[in-house]
């Protein structure tokens, strides 16, 4: 299977920005779509945003619309999540994965937003 590795997390103040990256070990055309997910302690994992690899059609969770932007770079085999106007409730471990097929979850990358 193509491996997916998340990076770019960190600790920021509310209102700040971060850009997360998801590097694939092979062509992202191996996937019809890719998505960013997050999970906070004591909460269920939720889909934050998804994008189709060819047409770049996007879907966002209502809680992040207008603040987050998902994109993909075919040449670099990389998925991105630009996160602006961050809020404390955005704090979570963020993962990338195929929203359709059953794949194992990676290590994720921690995002912490302080008031």
Characterization of the model:
The protein has 115 residues and is mainly β. The chain contains no helices and 10 strands. Strands 2-10-9-4-5-6 form a 6-stranded mixed sheet, with no helix packed on it. A 4-stranded antiparallel sheet has the order 1-3-8-7, with no helix packed on it.
**What's the story with the biggest beta sheet?**
6 strands, mixed
How large is the radius of gyration?
A: 13 Å
Number of helices: 0
What are the low-pLDDT stretches, counting only 5+ consecutive residues below 50? none
Please provide the ordered H/E string of secondary-structure elements: EEEEEEEEEE
The coarse silhouette is: globular
**Structural class from helices and strands?**
mainly beta
Strand content: over 45%
Share in helix: under 10%
How would you sum up this structure in a few lines?
Helices cover 0% and strands 49% of the residues. The chain contains no helices and ten strands.
Q: What are the defining features of this structure?
A:
six-stranded mixed beta sheet; 115 residues; mainly beta
Task: Walk me through the topology.
Blueprint (H helix, E strand, L loop, with lengths): L3 E4 L2 E4 L4 E7 L8 E7 L6 E7 L5 E3 L7 E6 L4 E6 L8 E6 L11 E6 L1
Parallel strand pairs: 2-10
Antiparallel strand pairs: 1-3, 3-8, 4-5, 4-9, 5-6, 7-8, 9-10
